[in-house]
Amino acid sequence: MTALDDLLTLRDLLRYAVSRFNAAGLSFGHGTTNALDEAAFLLLEALKLPVDDINPWLDAHLTRDERACLLDLIEARVTTRKPAPYLVGRAYIHGLGFRVDERVIVPRSYIGELLMRGVLESEGLGLVPEPEAVGRVLDLCTGSACLAIIAAGRFPNAEVDAVELSPDALDVARLNVADYDLGDRVHLLQGDLFAPLDGQRYDLIIANPPYVTAEEVAAFPPEYASEPQMAHIAGADGLDLVHRILAQARNHLNPGGGLLCEVGTGREALEAVYDLPFTWLDTEESEAEVFWIGEADLPG
Fold first, then answer.
1. Methyltransferase small domain spans which residues (predicted)?
2. 38, 39, 91, 296: which could form a disulfide with 32 (CB 3.0–4.6 Å)?
3. Angle, in degrees to the nearest 10, between helices 64-80 and 35-46
4. Which of 191, 162, 158 is nearest to 174 (CA)?
């Protein structure tokens, strides 16, 4: 008997996958934080089932072809150490799905949660009092365009410019923009931060730039090392791009606008350099890794 003959239900495959992942010492963090959630996501997405809850399907008997496919994916996760979203070509932010492959970082920005929960708006902090009044949004380092797409949904009257340096990442972004039928509102631009914008101004700038130090990148586990290095590395203190964004953002914001930027664990390093009134925002899984600063408080 083989695993293909012994493991008949989704519950069997889930248990097997968790055991294999734990025994292999895999690293997580690309949408899940542990072996159980990683296994559940991988199996459900491969079966084209809703990824939010595996429980309704646990006792479902799988066809032989389905079992063979899932066993191959479990083995690939262990042997290649690629994040599960790369193996199934899809990642999610609060229920919204996006195409991904090795050309883009796996979407997992805390900014997505902040936008979708309305934290910036009147029911939250009141930083963006009227979502319908937001006319222009800029998404820097857009990658797969996930944040640009979320912003387009949250601010229904806004035109969204999404800038990305990597032409390969933009190819993936185009697929996602097309999937959400947002080609008339989300405009993808290739270039370095503000360079392709020709002085245009926005009501809101969102940015999830690279913010990892070179030393940390060198120590990455294989899962993180499989992502494009340019999506992570940002100099000795991890803030090279954040410094540039802060220096130029005011020139691209309308009066009353603001900058929402993710910096990971860079708060202490950032506040050691700038005497600015950052508002630090928490999410379900992060504390003070994203800041807001209004246009009038920015340098320049």
1. 133-216
2. 38
3. 140
4. 162
What are the structure tokens assigned to 258, written together? 């603001």
Angle, alpha carbons 26-29-32 (nearest 5°): 95
The residues of the chain that CATH labels 3.40.50.150 are 104-297
- Tell me where in the chain the CATH 1.10.8 domain(s) lie: 3-88
Supply 63's token pair.
């066809």
CB 77 within 8 A of CB 21: yes
Average pLDDT over residues 174-187: 98
**Do residues 291 and 283 touch, judged by C-beta distance below 8 A?**
no
Which one of 1.10.10, 3.40.630, 1.10.8, 1.25.40 gives the CATH number of domain 3-88? Answer: 1.10.8
Q: Specify the pLDDT at position 237.
A: 83
The reported pTM is 0.93
Tokens of 248: 């130029």
The class level of CATH for 104-297 reads: alpha beta
Angstrom CA distances, 199 to 19, 160, 193, 242, 251, stand at 54, 15, 12, 19, 7
Token readout for 210 is 């690279």
pLDDT band at 214 (very low <50, low <70, confident <90, very high): confident
Q: How far apart are CA 69 and CA 76, in angstroms?
A: 11
